[in-house]
Amino acid sequence: MTLVSPRSRAAIAVLAACLLAIVANCLAAEPLAVGPLGDEPEATAVDKKFPEIAQAAELFGKRRFDDALTKLQEACQKHPELPPAQIIMFGFFDQVRRAGATGAAVAARTSLEKAVIDSPTDPEAFVILGNIALSERRVTESELLFGKASQLMAGFQGDADRKKALQQKVLGGLASVALAREDWTGAETQLLELLKLNDKNVPAMQQLARALFKQGTKPKTVACSDWTKTAYETDPKRALPAPTQMALFYAQAPDFDNAKKWIDYSLTAYPKDLRARLAAAQWYWQTSELEMKINPVHLDAAEKHAAEAMIIDPESIDAIVFRGVVALFKKDFASAERWFEKAHIMKFDHFPAKNNLALALCEQDDSSKRQRALQLADENARRYPKSAEALSTYGWVLYKNTRLQDAGKVLNQVASAGNMSADTAYYIAHVMAESNTENAKAGAIQLLESAVKSTKPFSKRDEAKKLLAELKRAS
What we know:
The chain is mainly α. Helix content is 73%, strand content 0%. It has a domain at 240-330: CATH 1.25.40.10. Helix 11 packs antiparallel against helix 12. The longest helix is centred in the middle third of the chain and has 21 residues, at 160-180. It is globular. Mean pLDDT is 86; it is low at 1-47.
């Protein structure tokens, strides 16, 4: 199998530096992204502390995997604070897997399985496997793996710093399992224990606040508010202002009256906070169609707060994209194009900007714009072949370019995956409505009836109602 291509050789030195940082912080379970291609960096303090790791990375880059493992084993014997050699080897393979190397995923998994055999009393392989299972929504398997890791932690005799880091990972994993199962009291218990080990863990505070809010009692809601304040005071760059976070909790409940109160309070308390403004814009946008019809007052308010957000930070790509979204809902496709184009230029791989730019372009009566929309949508569909949103947009843009058969194939692919949005249902119904068969038209009516009942923002609501009425009259 080909694990490292010649083009990747230049990145191995940078890869080694990334992995050394992982090892130094005992974070082998959380690999960093592969760094940019470049020349070998200068030696760091970490290189000097663990020279065997740097040597192993160099051997790995030459595809001398057995020699790399031997060198890692030497390092682990000299430095007991390091994770087992096969865990570090997993980090090596996982890095090149992320870079697209063929066969690296299998090799990475094999390293974990060998780590379980070679180091049966070490919890870290079970922690990593638990995180993998959780990311793939295999919650029961993840719970068993974290449970095994927790059992091993009871007898762990390794380095004290590494033990503390592993304890946090195990508690975090068990909390994530509880959250996935909506076991709010169980998540609360695990997260409180985690915060005893690290009282600066802002993500844990945020998840604890959510678990408390979900329990629904007044004391828990008060405690939730307190933790949102603590999270913001601990790290205002990572956490939302407390009233903004409370507004989001109530919006998700949904309890729109309380959400509105907290939104208003957040704007009073933090009038110059970008995220508070964006949250307000999003809330007004999301509630602009609660009664299954456009509420222009709420849509105007969403636009106002998005504009205020851009005054606070003219370079905020989120604010710029949101200006475009509101314009899209107002059928001002030229303005939507302008905002999405600005965001797309700022960041070419920004999916929402590119996806929505294609939608704004294809709705305009200009063949060159529709062709460009097709190019953008095709690129997104190729890059994100499992994304329902990317494929849905691609299907609609194909339809707008009069490629009815191709549009039908793509949209059918989205439909077969299930859980389609109201916009996707409208796109599919529109294509079906052009068929001469009664079954297709009946199916289109069914899709449209479901779509117009959606209380979520639906950019084609008016068009869906109009098409539904036409099909019913004709049936």
